Amino acid sequence: MKEGTYLRIVYKAFENGMHFVGPSYVAKELGISKVTAYEALLKLAKMNYGSYIPKKGFVLNKNGIKVGKDLTRKHRLIECFLAELNLDADRICKEATNIECFVSDFLIEALEKRYGNKETCPCGHSLKL
Ligand SMILES: [Zn+2]
């Protein structure tokens, strides 16, 4: 899994009002081990997306919020595209997670043109970020 996906998951927690995001949350969301999640959060801190506060968790900085928001919009645009295949909402999110870090800016621009005006992604999350 790539850093972008971890950052998006942290942003999702932030969007839901969670200020500190611990390894348990990330592990549960992505179905990975706590150790892997912990290492990913340390890496996000190193990449200047926020800080990891021991015993509290990861907290996003301004840069992390900006990039996290951008990645979330990309994820949701990809979901709109995958929805055309009539997959279950669960599957759509999983598949979008699998490819979100590999989609080119060119394709994202095309998705923006096609789905950019939609209110929500197929799972009902806002596209107006
Ligand atoms: Zn969605």
Give a quick set of tags describing it.
binds zinc ion, Arc Repressor Mutant, subunit A, globular, 129 residues, 2 domains, 6 helices, two-stranded antiparallel ribbon, 2 strands, mainly alpha, Diphtheria Toxin Repressor, domain 2
Can you describe what's shown?
By secondary structure, this protein is mainly alpha-helical. It has two domains: 3-65, Orthogonal Bundle (Arc Repressor Mutant, subunit A); 72-115, Diphtheria Toxin Repressor, domain 2 (Orthogonal Bundle), CATH 1.10.60. Helices cover 60% and strands 6% of the residues. It has six helices and two strands; from the N terminus they run αααββααα. The model has no long low-confidence stretch (mean pLDDT 96). The structure holds zinc ion. Residues 76, 79, 93, 121-123, 125 line the site of zinc ion (ZN). Residues 76, 79, 93, 121-123, 125 line the site of zinc ion.
By secondary-structure content and strand pairing, the structural class works out as: mainly alpha
Model regions low in confidence, pLDDT < 50 over at least 5 residues: none
Report on the biggest sheet.
2 strands, antiparallel
- Which molecules other than protein and nucleic acid are bound? zinc ion
Q: Evaluate the radius of gyration.
A: 14 Å
Shape, principal axes of CA atoms? globular
Give the ordered list of helices and strands: HHHEEHHH
